[in-house]
Amino acid sequence: MSDNRIIEKRQLADEVCEIRVEAPLIARERQPGQFVILQLDGEFGERIPLTIADADPDAGWILLVFQTVGHTTHRLAALQEGDRIAHLLGPLGTPTHIERFGSVVCVGGGIGVAPLHPIAKAMKAAGNRVTVVVGARTRDLIVMEEPMRAIADEFVLCTDDGSAGRKGLVTEPLAEICARAPKPDLAVAIGPPIMMKFCAETTRPFAVPTVVSLNTIMVDGTGMCGGCRVTVGGRTRFVCVDGPEFDGHQVDFDNMMQRLNAYKDHEQAAHERCHLDEAIARKERDHERQA
Predict the structure, then answer these.
(1) In angstroms, rounded to a whole number, what is the distance separating the alpha carbons of residues 164 and 167?
(2) Of 65, 47, 46, which Cα lies nearest the Cα of 55?
(3) Cβ distance 156 to 180 under 8 Å?
(4) Is 7 helix (H, G, I), strand (E, B) or coil?
(5) Long-range pairs for 219-226 at CB < 8 Å and ≥24 separation?
(6) Which candidate, 193, 5, 178, 179, places its Cα nearest to that of 83?
(7) Which of left, alpha, beta for 180 (phi over 0: left; psi -120 to 50: alpha)?
(8) Residue 39 contacts residue 87 (beta carbons within 8 Å)
(9) Are the C-beta atoms of 283 and 275 separated by less than 8 Å?
(10) Biggest CA pair distance of the chain
(11) Within 13 Å and on the Cβ side, how many CA atoms surround 120?
């Protein structure tokens, strides 16, 4: 077995890839909610944190789902089955607290469904009744629908445009579920910050404890860079070492989103540059084949 070798690769949606990676030690030790840091080059390459979407300790693999946003994720998406990831470190982060709460509603938005998957799976294994709400902008952006359906006692699918499931935002079925008697004992929401913010605001009037994962703001993953600092309950916390999960009713989402948006233009420019480079490379390959 060759550690860090990609043994399977799939395209889940536009700009979203899934890779199964041989990593027996990480697979054996990982717990729901934890992440890895990977590096494609030597010591000076960019390091990116990715949440472990699934793992098999017996077969020795972990599952990573990622969106192509910048240079490194585009390069990662270009790797093929049989290629190796130079460096893979983990598992990192504080694991999700799993116990038999009773009834748990798990809400995933977009690619946030991937890190939600092992949590929902563990909640079910602990004896909870698990309701899963999955949302995306459109049908083509839905990820891991079937694995989530397999876990759920109740499954709700939403799309903004109504192209799959019910039309609307995930907060609508979440409010309906919270209004039931009895109400859920716990809510777990993972997705874009704006979605998690409004999930937390939806559960707040019902006093349903709500856990959110702030992994989207992580950069270095070791607590050294300070890029993932957030305000939780009036205190500064670091997502990579204190989280990535926090009480959603205590997170200052507005401050978090303001900090994330500070680099939006740079991210968009890097994304467009990667697509341009890929287009040029395709033209060069076509030209070479025709020559």
Answers:
(1) 8
(2) 65
(3) no
(4) strand
(5) 219/49, 220/47, 220/49, 221/35, 221/37, 221/47, 221/49, 221/92, 222/37, 222/92
(6) 5
(7) beta
(8) yes
(9) no
(10) 71
(11) 30
The count of residues in the chain is: 291
pTM for the predicted model, two decimal places:
0.86
Edge-to-edge strand list for the sheet holding 16-22: 6-13, 16-22, 61-67, 47-56, 35-39, 87-92
Q: Are 4 and 132 in contact (CB under 8 A)?
A: no
CB 17 within 8 A of CB 8: no
* Residue type (1 letter), 56: D
Pick the CATH number of 103-258 from 2.60.40.10, 1.10.3720.10, 3.40.120.10, 3.40.50.80: 3.40.50.80
What the block records as the tokens of 254 is: 């507005």
Phi, psi of 197 (to 5 degrees): -60, -50
CB atoms inside a 10 Å sphere around CB 177: 22
Residue 189: closest CA among 214, 159, 168: 214
Enter the CATH code of domain 6-92: 2.40.30.10
User: One-letter amino acid identity for 152?
Assistant: A
The whole-angstrom distance between residue 46's C-alpha and the CA centroid of its chain comes to 19
pLDDT digits (tens, 9 = 90+) for 128-163: 999 999 999 999 999 999 999 999 999 999 999 999
Range list of H helices, the chain: 24-29, 71-78, 113-125, 145-151, 171-178, 193-203, 239-242, 253-261, 264-290
DSSP structural state of residue 5: B
Q: Which long-range contacts (CB under 8 A, 24 or more apart) does 224-229 make?
A: none
Question: DSSP state, 93?
Answer: S
Domain borders along the chain are: 6-92, 103-258
Give 178-220 pLDDT, tens digit per residue.
999 999 999 999 999 999 999 999 999 999 999 999 877 766 6
